[in-house]
Task: structure prediction
Amino acid sequence: MSGTVRWGVLATGGIAAAFTEDLRSMPDMEVVAVASRTDASAQEFAQRFGIPRAYGSWAGLAADEEVDVVYVATPHSAHREAAALCLEAGKHVLCEKAFTLNAREADELVKLARDRGLFLMEAMWTYCNPVVRRMTELVRDGAIGEIRSVQADFGLAGPFGPGHRLRDRALGGGALLDLGVYPVSFAHLLLGEPDRVQADAVLSPEGVDLHTAMVLGWSEAGASALLNCSIVADTPQTAAVTGTKGRIEFPRGFFYPERFVLHRAGREPEEFTAGAAGAGLRGLQFEQAEVVRALRAGETESPLVPLDGSLAVMRTLDAVRDRIGVRYPADDLG
Result:
């Protein structure tokens, strides 16, 4: 794929707006179409960002022959349906996280993309962040020795009322899929899929998790992770990786970091700051650049956000939900 990469944006919420804002700063990329379930919403979004075509249906965007790749920004309850529609229409897809509602849906999407020979990636922007990539290089090179523990949390105070999507079980509400996916994915990035999963949660009257605590374990590595997520408490939103020879600490906002500090015995702390998002940008441009790089290289998966890794994260999220007793209507459709 050469020349300008033409994006379609499917959905018109806050994350779609942030994604579009960042993409406008990128060379050789443009948003050429947007879709929503209603024509009014699509038209309003198109006018706001100067997008030439607006569709009041997802099918209209999927059928647009001038769209190369679609960014799916719906609530995660609709990720499978929206992404599958685009893949079946021959479009490459970047799909927001959590990738789907459960591992079964994620597996269906991955099989569809692989069968069609199309690019598919979960929009785990953290993995594409240059600061996080530098951290993984240091860990791989033995800077902190063997990993023994990972700590990470992501919580918001809200309040989110009973009518909010985060409290809606049919939409995959709760802290885990919306916020907990970040700490879980952070632990997976460093240690892979755990073989032990423990969890405890406080549930809402609607049956979604308001606050979830997780302990993940890796028997072979001799490591564990202590993770938290919440939609009722403003947690520190920090992360730390501790090894046998040192530790790495991320300040608030670990999921889109601009810096981290490396601590090693007998040395002064070292701060790494490369890869700041840039003035006025959210940091979503890094995942956009990775999608375009992969497409131009003829790749159907990103080595930074591999599909097998996204599947593993979904299996862990499923295991957590099993432990805390949260089920979505879609779980019973498989």
